[in-house]
Each structure stands twice: as C-alpha cells, then as structure tokens.
Amino acid sequence: MNQTLNNYAIAVAEGDKASLAATFATNVKIMQPAGNQPIDGVGKAATMLSAALIAIENFKLVRTFEKEENWGAVVFEGQLDGNVVQLIDQVYLDENNLINHVDVFFRPTAMAEMLLDKMAAAIQLQASKALIA
C-alpha cells in the first residue's frame, strides 16, 4: 500500500491533525459532502477532516483501496445520532506522493448537512479552547 495513503487513513481515524497535515501538498483541496466550495490549504483541510472523529461516534477505518494512477479511496464508518454512516474519501496524489485533492462522499446523503454542522461545532469548540489556553 502507498505509505501516504496509509498515513492519511490512520491520521484521519485517529483525528491526528499534525500527521494528517504531513500527508498534504501545500495546494491541497478538499471537496466536502454537501459543500459548494473546496476547503483550501493544509491547516484548514487537516482541521476539517480531523473533526469527523469528533462528530461521528465509534468512528473507525474500514478499508483502503489503491489504484496505480496515483489515487485511492479510504472508507470509514461510525454513527451519527444513532444512525450508521459511512465516509468515503477519494484521495489523489501529486508527483511528490503528497495528497493534493480529496473528494469526501457521505452516506446516507440525507445526513450530510447534519455531519457538517456537527463538524463545524467541533472546530469552533477546538478554536475557543485554543484561545483560552
């Protein structure tokens, strides 16, 4: 398995922003479910993706898929308000073997907005704690 993809999968599953950021190219773009605009930049991307661990209960890595064309997919599962959910990250690597694009898919799609709201609340809580510390 590609080491970058493996590191990405583990970092997301553990909510490890620093390790996640280390897998990204500086021009990384994240397309989130139910979002119209990409999340640009390493810091914002790492914060957004690591917030999934906070928003989703029993969050776990299920499997990874790798293709020769410098892309792969990572599947995560968990529960959101008692409902089983699945996140699928389609990950693209650049010529330096760093992630430059991630398309995040979410099932069931009807709950995607709820997920984004919970992730936004988790990010806001983290930011307020950082200001207090």
From TrEMBL:
Domain of life of the organism encoding this protein: Bacteria
Name of the protein described by the UniProt record: Nuclear transport factor 2 family protein
Species of provenance: Spirosoma pollinicola
